Structures are given as structure tokens and as C-alpha cells.
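Researcher: Quick sanity check before group meeting.
Model: Go ahead. Protein one:
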Amino acid sequence: MSVHSSTRSSIIQPQQFSSDVVLETQNLSVYYGDFLALQDVSMAFPSNQVTALIGPSGCGKSTLIRCFNRLNDLIDDCQVKGKVLYGEKNLYHPKIDPVEVRRQIGMVFQKPNPFPKSIYENIAYGARINNIQQNMDELVETSLKQVGLWDEVKDKLNENGMSLSGGQKQRLCIARAVSLKPKIILMDEPASSLDPISTSKIEDLIAQLKERYTIIIVTHNMQQATRVADFTAFFNAQESDEGNRYGYLVEYDKTENIFGNPQEEITREYVGGHFG
């Protein structure tokens, strides 16, 4: 199996961040059966910052963030090697409960996926099954206010969440995530299916949410990365000896450096629009 190697390390080390590191990967590789999907990723994520993962399709961005809350556990034949450290804990230690991991590290998907329940129950149901101990009316209101949705839906909380517009549905899903009081919110292309106005609202919301949460976002939209992210990691893909493509981390730095002064030529080509 071919192995990607680089003549220099582009990994930002934890001590270079101005804030504490909340999540870190060490030599993380992901396999689907015998096929390598993501190779040897070592990187750290600073708290209360937005980190964007960019790169062409098939470079492992979504695979990576699904490692962070153990969603890859749900895929047959998926094997994760290496470590994902959340504080002092390796999230892949046998004694770690994946359900608790997903409460601490929430996920917002590309396509808005509200529960087929009332707007109120979209927030309350998840909180109840996760044993969130708080007055439920207060929790619903607080969560909806955090995502700027309260004033739009406060008079129709008993209406089905599926009746909302696309942008409202996505904000409802984000409200559902924050109601569980996570430390980290993962966002996988959260605005790719939305119109420009709804996209702008989501981006504004991300900027507000980082005051309370650490956010890791996958995006194909490089302009979006420049608008919302403090740090950006560029991933690329190459072919193994077995003929399958696998992803690897090329360069990770402050967003302004990735787009304004990248250190790797292939990063410069990608952000310059030459491929992808």
C-alpha cells in the first residue's frame, strides 16, 4: 500500500493556539474493510474557534468528522486506527460510551433532518432521552433563541418541524444539537442545500455559536471557509497501490495563511481553483 509522505510538517501544534485544545487526533487512519479511506491524520482543534475542513470530493473530510463522534461505528467493516483525544480521554477506548460521545460532540448534517415531530418536541425529545435535567419550556426557548429561531416560531411550537423552510429546518437541527449542551458541534456541509439568504443566516449563526462551542465544519465552498473559519485544514486524495483513493492532510494553518500564503504548492493550486 502506498504511503503519503511530506518533506515538512504543516500541522499546527497545540502550543501554537491562543486557546486550549479541546480535540486532537494522533495518527488517525480509517479503513472500510481492507480499503484505506483516510491516512495518518494528526491535528489539534482549539476551543471556541471555527475550523474548516476543505478539499476535493473523496479526500476524507466527512469520514474524519464522523470519527469525532463515533458515527463511523454505525458503518459495517469500518475500522478506526490511531487516537481521537477529547481532553484526556481517547474516544476509542473500549470503556467509552459512544452515546455519551455523541451528546458531548453534536452533529449537524448536510440535509436538514428534523424529527417528524412538533418544533417543541424536536428540542425536548432529544433532551429527555439524553437525561438533560432542566425545565423543558426554558430549554426549548433558550435553544431556539441561541439559533435566532425563537421569534420566528414561538407562536407555532406545536406545529410539525417538517413544515419549516429549509433554512429554518437547519437552524432547528442546530438548536436540537445545542440543547444537549455539547462542547463541540460538527457541521457537514450545513448550508450546501440552502439558498443564499439562508446560507448567510447559518454563517452568521456559526460566528455567534463559537462563543459557546468549538465548531468543526466541512465545506466545499472556499469562500464560506474564508468567511467563517479561524483555521482551515486542506485535505487531498491520492490513489493507493490497490487502486482506491484515500485522503490525507496536506496543510493546516490559520485561514488567512491557507488562502493568502499557503506553504504547499498543491494547496496553492487548490485554493486558486486549478482543481477540485
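Researcher: Fine. The other one?
Model: Protein two, sequence then structure:
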Amino acid sequence: MSELGQMVYFKANGAMAQGYLAKATSGKGIGVIVIQEWWGLVDHIKNVCDRFARAGFTALAPDMYDGATTKSPDEASKLFMALNISDAEKKLRGAIDFLLANEAVSSKKVGTVGFCMGGQLSLFAATLNDKIGACVDFYGIHPAVKPDFAKLNAPVLGIFAEKDSMVNAEAVKALEESLKAAGKKYEFHVYPNATHAFFNDTRPDVYDAKAALDAWNKTLAFFKTHLS
């Protein structure tokens, strides 16, 4: 369960939005926006924020579904497809401004990291917001999110799984070619034998502890390199 952080409210889209904020246990740290999978702002995502806090970062996970969460893939799919992408980007913008104004944040820009749906939103936000200084995409996918990589403001770390049927080798290659064609800085890692959502330790059917730890360490190093 989440222990370190708390729910907070911030302005976004002309209204108030909510999110889970975990401040660096060291007092101050690089700001990171954590973007949920299609299940919603569940305990797993809050726990990722807590892990960032223990590693010396201050992390905020905006609630992209305004309180809705689910364990049902069918329900998750409905929430995922109903997400208004323009509103989602504005919510991320509000979350970034809120985080950068927090006294527990030491960086001038934030890092974004997202998983599945959140991975694609992490990329999308980085093409529209120059306050993002580093972008991590864990096996990102959303059919309605089409980033314009010519406008990408940040280097990208892509984390993928060899046995991922949702984000397969062809999709990874297409993303790499798009980034290369746009002349952007990126590094990709594809984990052998891992499958989609291998980072989610609440799902024993897909979790890969070794790959997840390596991807976590790469993420921390990437943010320190580009945001310190």
C-alpha cells in the first residue's frame, strides 16, 4: 500500500484535478510526472511514486480518469478509449506546473514516465510542453494519441518487451524510425522474453522482476543525466 505520499489538487483545464504526490525523502529532488496504465490511478502507480520519493525524486501521478479505477480489462478498455486526449494533455500541463512550483522539487524541468497508455501520453506531452526535459515510455500504446515528433522537446528512453503483442517489434521499429527521421535523441531497450506490462509487480501473470529492476535503474539514471 502507499505510505509516503498523499492526494493533492491542482488547477487544470479551467477546473481542479487530483493526483498522488510523493515528496523526495531526502527533502528535495528532481520532479517526475508518473502517468498511469489503463487501470486508473491504482495503488501500483502510487507505489511507483513512493519508489521515486525513496530514490530522491519528487513524483506526481495525475489522476487521468478523475477517480475511476478498475481491475476489469473490458472496463479499462472503455475508460482508455473514452479518454479525451486534448483534455489529458491539459491535465498533464497543469500537473507539471503544479509540480515545478512545489518546494520539494529541485529541477527546472520535469521528467515524464508512463506505462502502456501512459507511455504514449508521456511521449505526446513531450511534443507539446517544453517544461519536460526527459521522457520515458514503457511500452506505450494508444490509437488516438499521435505525437508529432518534429516538435519533441526532450530525449526519450524507450522500454519495451520482446513478447509484447500490443507493442510488437514492428511498432517499436516504426517508433524508432519516426524519432530518427525527426533527428531526436533516444535510446531503446527491448527485454528478452518479457511481455506487455512486465514492470507491474501487482500482476504476477506478466511481472518480470529482473527486467523490471533493470528498467527502473535505467529510468533513474536517465532522469539524473538529463534533469540534474
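Researcher: One line on it for the slide.
Model: The chain has a mean pLDDT of 96.
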